[in-house]
Amino acid sequence: MKVKRLNWVKQWRDKDVDFWRSVCFSDESTFEILQNKTQFVRRRRGEKFHSDCVVQTVKHPTKIMIWSVISSKRTGCLDVVKGMVRQDQYKYVLQNRSISQLEEWFSDGESYIFMQDGALCHTARSIKAFLAEQNILLLDWPDKSPDMNTIENVWELMKREVGLKM
């Protein structure tokens, strides 16, 4: 895997800033609603079950999967996906939201390159065929390399903000 990542870097390292501005990074992330936080409370003897010293927890918090895309131009809409992303759901999001967003962002004749990771729903033959039919250029991506995808920084910021609001 390290060799593939290194080869990928060597392949793309000479690209200029304008090239990277044309890349649209996409991915999905899971968010936990009502996630349990460790919170310590100082209590006196006899306050063990006092309401100020007890925090209700959720054994199985609700999880939602959100998919989006970002580029140097804008951030895309957030698409909530039920369960794990399957190829039919992914195609629906691409067809009904994402491609039109990308075409709007790059409407002045600029070309763009679409980045998706190696998730099975992204690499399915039907998805590759659909993207080819739409004349969408794909940026090849090394397996198991989410740390190289800039949208992961957005997900991290969102999770931090969601955690603060809960």
Automatic annotation (TrEMBL):
Task: Recall the GO molecular function terms of this protein's record.
Answer: nucleic acid binding
Q: Which domain of life is it from?
A: Eukaryota
Q: Note the InterPro entries from the entry.
A: RNaseH_sf, Tc1-like_DDE_dom, Transposase_5
Ranges in a coiled coil: none
Signal sequence residues:
none
Tc1-like transposase DDE domain residues = 23-162
Q: What is this protein called?
A: Transposable element Tcb2 transposase
